[in-house]
# Entry
Amino acid sequence: MYAADKSRYQGQLTDQEHFMRKKDYRQKSGRLKELTRGLEKSVSQAEEEIKNLTESDETLYEQHKRLCTAEGTDDKTAAKMIVVTRGFTVFTDARRFCCHAERHLLLFVAKQGLAAGGQEYQNPPAPCGSGRRRKVQGWNCMSIMKGKRLRERNKMSVPNAVRAKLVHRMFAVIRNNQDYQKDYANAFA
# Structure
């Protein structure tokens, strides 16, 4: 919440600079910069508290350390996954978690039908933002997505696949209880 407010205030600073009188903009920017500094302090305190809680519990520390070894996950994503899955105890496998995320998060425009007035409707957003975080991580493959759009495919198919791959990596790291290895050699081959 603090991070979202901070980015909103910073966006207001950059967006409104050329549309206000200089005197009004200076006053507003002073207020918003002060608010932003306070929010940065609150965010850093919250992150420090999360770090202390993670380091105090051995299981959480091991899970966090293993999740951070997986390619595509950082400290915040690892902490969010641990919280949402309640230490990987609620969901037995990655597919169930992906289904949960698709049902409960605002991931894409629903294609089942049209709302009144002929407009597509969207699923309501859920309080946990794990799907949105992975969606943003999935946008790193823009060149592939542009190719999909040229071939008239759904533009969300690539981010959904990348998101599912990240989730499966995270669950595999926890399930196998070993660090992520990029160069995987199949033992059965």
The chain has two domains: 1-56, 58-189.
